[in-house]
Design goal:
homodimer; alpha+beta; 3-stranded antiparallel sheet; 12 helices; elongated; DNA-binding
Amino acid sequence: MISSTQKPDSKPTPLNERAQRLLKFLVERYIRDGQPVGSRTLSKDSGLDLSPASIRNVMADLEELGLINSPHTSAGRVPTALGYRFFVDSLLTIKPLAEQEILSLKNQIGPVQDSRSLLASASSMLSEISSMAGIVMLPRRDMVALRQVEFLPLSGNQVLVVLIINEHEVQNRIIQTSRRYSPAELQQAANYLNQSFAGRDLKSVRNRLLGEMKQTRENMDQLMVAAIEMADKAFLPAEQGGDYLMAGQTNLMNYAEMSNIDRLKQLFETFNRKRDVLHLLDQCMHAEGVQIFIGDESGYQALDECSLVTSPYRVDGEVVGVLGVIGPTRMAYDRMIPIVDVTARLLGAALNQVK
Amino acid sequence: MISSTQKPDSKPTPLNERAQRLLKFLVERYIRDGQPVGSRTLSKDSGLDLSPASIRNVMADLEELGLINSPHTSAGRVPTALGYRFFVDSLLTIKPLAEQEILSLKNQIGPVQDSRSLLASASSMLSEISSMAGIVMLPRRDMVALRQVEFLPLSGNQVLVVLIINEHEVQNRIIQTSRRYSPAELQQAANYLNQSFAGRDLKSVRNRLLGEMKQTRENMDQLMVAAIEMADKAFLPAEQGGDYLMAGQTNLMNYAEMSNIDRLKQLFETFNRKRDVLHLLDQCMHAEGVQIFIGDESGYQALDECSLVTSPYRVDGEVVGVLGVIGPTRMAYDRMIPIVDVTARLLGAALNQVK
DNA sequence: TGTTAGCACTCGAAGTGGTCGAGTGCTAAC
DNA sequence: GTTAGCACTCGACCACTTCGAGTGCTAACA
């Protein structure tokens, strides 16, 4: 379910049982309290029955390995990005959601409605439940199935294309044709396309049409020419993979680490410059299940002290988008991972029904 | 050009010339520096040739009137919301924009394109030029002129309505009809509507159809019934006046007064809850020219330390939307007012061309 | 060899007191 | 009506102290 970008298990870790248990407890405690964790706390609460002094020895080792560090002498220790990574990959115990929680998620996503509102409600649900920012990338247009297409003549050589997708979703685009088509011609071309391709996704429609064109170039009739020209232009993939919905950005202001105005500003500016976020989400499209970016693993400066938990969601077994949450690195991964995972499944199922 | 919600001129102000000049200078200086202004500064720089002591007397009067106050003993004075209001209504001298500035604005709005991008670029231009948040309310759908309407049958009794507006803008809605119509019937209804009503705005189309229905209820043919049912549902005004575009919210983080995380959070949450903002903008629709809300005059707690400068913009002489900027109360009103005013005119003109 | 107790040390948080400067209100003199 | 002068207030700033949490290191212990 979780795919990690690095595999610490591939060679035997130099961490013994005890060090791992301590690290696990330290990370969990830091996630809970947000305060650096000292040796005394660990000695008292970790259940390991070791004196603070021994624990300090272990912590010195962990620090040397780059898994934790201290903000200054004589503060406790805090996990580094690497520490979080190790924690998530090897130490984290995920308790699956209770039946009841899943049901509650399901209710929150809401009754079946049009897909756009489903996505919006998934996004704000993620934000609410996590108290962080929820994000849902819209389905790629070229992955969704075509139901119906209509062409309407506009002035000049322009034609308005109306694509009906998943029964209720509608997309428009205006295309420029090489010559003026009569309403009747447009009607015929639409009929042809509807009969031949309803139910297939846009990308494959386009590919197949181009294929046919090559093969039968000689003996095409008027109708085919019109249909192919139209479809060629109309089904071009949307310029930019997709768009995304986001909710709850303001939640991020609640976290102590985020209260630095400058950092916050940088973050919001990243959200506004959708390109970066989209690119990041795009990477997650191809991952199998839940994926986690910790700190600057995302490669974007602005997400430096943030982590991103994502999962692709599917319609008809085909990945069509990605959703997830963005929050401070010290988020409750054990909760977020199943929540994101389940939400992705629920959203997929709901989208399937709309269809 | 500026309409004020209260009219301090209606009864003779108790402020003599000197007090007014001092208040004006104080507000201007505070807007410039963001620091409380003391009696010494006023004495030195106001050009009034008065000693600090005399000035203190005047300031005591102004404070009693509620126009200024001091954050604490022995800080300088700061304008209150009332003070800003008086300043804006009676003291402000607005220098109209230079020809060159107008031209530069015009260029920034950009070449004629589709209306949606025009609005977006107006919004981000306002934000950029003001270093505050720019806001543009989208045109009310029922005010725009209908070019063409098409009906497409969906499954069951559902019909997809495609409205083409201003040549290139397209809007869809799905309506539920009382019975199933054949494609031919739909085609006929659309033809009828297109012939009779192209060029008129949606509201008047709907009104007129309803009128006709009453008059000729007896002798209506099938076609008319279909057309009227369809149009009745299709041209219903959109549920909520419209939507708005906003740019540059993060600019607001730069102002000292706004650096309070809690206040900022409240503000962003207001932006997210579009309803309030829309309601506020809606009020401005009916005003003549530039309108200014200072501090809590807007009636929204969250906009407490913010001011809003707005102006409606017109297409064909008809008000279709509102634009403006949101910033801290101590914004440079003398610059913002002409900028908002001119932008509204330019946007109107640009929209006219698209049409 | 691993564990623990003890000790000196570091560092930030928080509190204290003192000075400085800007600004005020008030009063008396001009 | 205007001004000079004076006592006062208040926040900003600085130096200083105390306190507690936490550390590293070493020596003693099992």
